[in-house]
Every structure is written in structure tokens, then in C-alpha cells.
Amino acid sequence: MKKVFLVLLALTFTISLSAQKKLKKQLDSVTTVEQAKVFLKAYKGAQNKLITFNEEKHKTRLSEEIMRMSKGATKTVKKDNQRTHYKVLEKNKITYYRVNYIFLDGTKMPIKDIEELRYNLILKLKQGIAFKDLAIKHSMDNTSQKGGDSGWFTYGDMLPEFEQQVMNDKYQVEDVFTVDVESNKWYYVVQKSHEKKSITEVKVLRIIEETR
């Protein structure tokens, strides 16, 4: 009986080792994001996915280790009965922007009232009242809870009409200006809070392998 158990154990180990080698070979063959998408269709799993790590948004020990990895490099994390494989597919510097803004919704407030409010808000800013305090009180979206801070964003994150204005290099830090998105009836008072910044982003293929 003991001999049979040992044979079964050895067989299980051999099969497991063979599966690991097969997966490693498959991961080695994936070198682009497009190839990774095809791979994910074949190697299905709820937690298997493409992940983008951003050096400003992700501050965990794992993300910092991955940020230091070169393109094509892999990392395996063993925990309990799983191996999680990370493979770096792309590593890029992306230009990001950051502003403070007060959002006014033209579907909930007449344009005449919006124009008057924006005039008064800009006047209060010139008088030295903090943008954060005005945003908390007047902004009509969830950024009001953060004092109007947009956080870092890049091309495609916002509507084109908004991006065309706030990504314009003619504005200096602390400059205040207005932006109208007429298509949505959205109106803004904007303050440039940061210079644009190149931020490293890493696209990674994550595959979780059960090892039971």
C-alpha cells in the first residue's frame, strides 16, 4: 500500500512538473499585449488578466519590484496552493496632467446662474480664498470630497473638450481659467495645480496557477 502511495505521489509530481514547464514555455512565447490577449482566451481564469502598473498610483512592494523589471522579465510569487506569474510586456513613459477643478452641471443649473457663479468663484480665488474650500462647497461631482483634485490623468481619460484646454502648455501652475464642454452641458473653473509629468507605466500579464 505504501509503495502504491509513493508511486502515485511520484506520478502526481511528474505531471505537476510537466504542467509547470509547459506553462513556462507558453509564457516565454508571449511577448506582446496582443499575444497576451490571445493567450488569455485559451488560458481562462477569473484572475488571469492584463494589468497596468503606474508608478504614481501603485505603491505596493510588488508593484515597486515590477517597476524595476525590464521588458520580457518574469516574476513568480508562491503563496499557499498557487503560483502567480507576472510577465512584463511593455514599459513606457506616459505624459500625465493634474489640475484642480470645480464642476458645474448645466443640466441642473441654468447657464445664467453658472456664469454668475463662475465669475464670483474666480473673484474669491483672486481674493485669496483656497481653491479647495470653494471646490468642497460648490463642485457638483465626487471630486468635491478631494477639494477638486483631479488626480493624475492622461490622454483619453477625460472628454476631448476638457483635455484640449487643461493640457495646453500656455497655462502656468496656479493659473485659473474656465472650460466649457457644451456637448454635455458641463462647465468648469480650473486651476493648474502641477506641471505635466512623465510617469512610468508597465503592462503585465498575470497568470495564476493552481499547484494542488
In total, how many domains does the architecture comprise?
2
Question: Looking at CATH, which topology of the largest domain would you report?
Answer: Chitinase A, domain 3
CATH class of the largest domain: Alpha Beta
Total helical segments: 6
CATH architecture of the largest domain: Roll
**Unreliably modeled segments:** 2-17
Radius of gyration: 25 Å
Number of strands: 7
Averaged pLDDT, please? 88
Order of helices and strands: HHEHEEEHHHEEE
Specify the overall morphology. elongated
> What helical percentage do the residues reach?
25-40%
Distance between the termini: 22 Å
Biggest β-sheet description: 4 strands, antiparallel
Structural class: alpha+beta
Summed up, what is this model?
This protein has 2 domains: 77 residues, no CATH class; 98 residues, Chitinase A, domain 3 (Roll). It is 36% helix and 29% strand.
Describe what you observe in this structure:
The chain has six helices and seven strands. A four-stranded antiparallel β-sheet has the order 1-7-3-2. A three-stranded antiparallel β-sheet has the order 4-6-5, with helices on both faces. With 212 residues, the protein is of the alpha+beta class. It starts with a helix and ends with a strand. It has two domains: 77 residues, no CATH class; 98 residues, Chitinase A, domain 3, CATH 3.10.50.40.
